[in-house]
Amino acid sequence: MDFFRSQDVARRNTTRLVLLFALALLCLIGITNLLLLAGLGFFAQTIDAPLFQRIDWVLLAWVSGAILVVVAFGSLYKILSLAGGGARVAELLQGRLLLPGSRELREQRILNVVEEMAIAAGTPVPPVYVLDEPGINAFAAGYAPSDAVIGITRGAIETLSRDELQGVIAHEFSHILHGDMRLNIRLIGVLHGILVLGIMGEYLLRSTRHSSRRSKDSGNIAVVGLALLVIGYAGTFFGNLIKAAVSRQREFLADASAVQYTRNPAGIAGALKRIGGSAAGSQLANPAAAEISHALFSEGLSRRFSGLFATHPPLGERIRRIEPDWDGRFDLPAATAPLAEGVSHAAAAAEPLAAEAAANAGQAAALSALAVSAALLAQAGNPREADVQQARQLLASLPPALLQAAHQPASASALVCLLLLDARPEQAAQQEALIADKAAPAVGQALQTLLPAAGAIRPEARLPLLSLALPALRQLSPAQYASLREVLLALIQSDGRISLWEWVLQRVLVQQLDGVFAPRSRLHHTAHRSLQQLQAEVVVLLGFVLRVGAARAQDAPQQHALPPQAQALFDEVLTGLGLPSAPLPPLEQLRLPPVNAALDALQALKPLQKPAFLKACAALIMADGVAAVAELEIFRALAAALDCPLPPLPATLTASA
User: Fold this and answer.
1) Quick one: CA dihedral 32, 38, 41, 43, positive or negative?
2) 172 assigned to active site
3) What is the reported pTM?
């Protein structure tokens, strides 16, 4: 699946949602005005006068304006209530945050599956919430990978095998990677506005039913409540139609992506069959399920006219698209996979992977620089089975002390500090003293226990370790996060320079956690811009990447001279992007604040122009035929900043001449 085209389709689906919402709103206004005219006896009048003269247009204008205000405030309220991203959706469904280290083996197994899938996809590891429901269902929610969560029912955890769970989680990661998640959460917000009139009508009817006095006022309120309830049912009708129109086809694509990611059709097909053969099915009892029904793995509600309003295709149709020879039977034997595997990542599964990884590295070495850059981009949003296996191998190879540390807030903070410790003993000693002075005592103590394992951290494992620590870091209080940021900044600046790895770590960490602790307004819409409109920022970033390639070390890029052919290469890349030639930016523009500002601006780049920019970056990195781990980390950080997650890359890529 083309990741960038999927992002563009999701953006166009948002425009489609706005148009459908506007049409539904116009229909609601029309229905309300018709009810008002009927209530005033307009249709019973026999006055012989032109139609437009008999209508009180001022009254209808006020009514229409009132509806617009109510719907706008209803949508605004829901959008603001969901500003926290996926966690707010999980809390809406009364989900329980699943903490790593659970003694419940099935819970630990689902955490392992999510971690493997996240590292394979190159996304932050999302927190997992468990819904206390017997039905088999799941969802992914959030505005971006940085605030995404995975929700899964108790029925799914207890009923599905590991392969089936992996199929379900891969399906949900497709929604995370391809922009569906943002669309789903926007649907919840805007549709609440057209449902709020019905909520008001139901409240008024309840208030009159429980009123002790029967009066004319009470009867009038009941009439108004009944009218609003009718309008509310109309809003529900249009809301369900919009959900079905927007989300149904995306489920087929997510199923196909799950098969692509895992290369195991039996996994997701088995999960769908278990839903069909289960007495509880995929139904959710929580009243809030109606709001998020379109974001679930399978239908969460029992509906009348299910063919018209269904947000998901029929189970049988989904299964046959995965297994064309399916016999139509839903019965499957009970899952009997050993649960002991769920306690830790299986090292045994990693044994056959070393040869495959070596083969992949050898294949990459035979490619040209241009082919390598294209191959890197082809992996964006498209993890393969080999990536999932590589993630499992990487996790199995990490020292248990580091894995354990990544799962608790204080020790996860210490782990991030550990990743920043300098290789030079004297400088590392100064940094340790700084941590002891500035960090919380628990962080300093945890760091001391992790120091013996520092030598086991391979360069290619640093970003995955950081990703593993993110769910625990999200559990910090705002004050604790502010303190951690201050400590990290002091560590980075302690030697008077900023290395490439230090830039990568601060960029990834701040981008992922600032969205949690200081979320941007969801009402603000950033217009998508072209490469031409962002030419100045593109020049700064490409100049930074070119200097990274020249540095080929952990040192600050501004301390290295560029080769003589650098300007010619720079002009060639700009021409390939359709931009005019430009002089290489001066050193003061390649320091980290201007680079960060340019990267922030490029987040508004149009989806279909992102691959062109990233290919240009890859071409500069591979211009000398070799991409070292520091350069690949830079490339992954740039891609992640543009919401283009990449799976773990080998320690070094070599291109043929």
Assistant:
1) positive
2) yes
3) 0.79
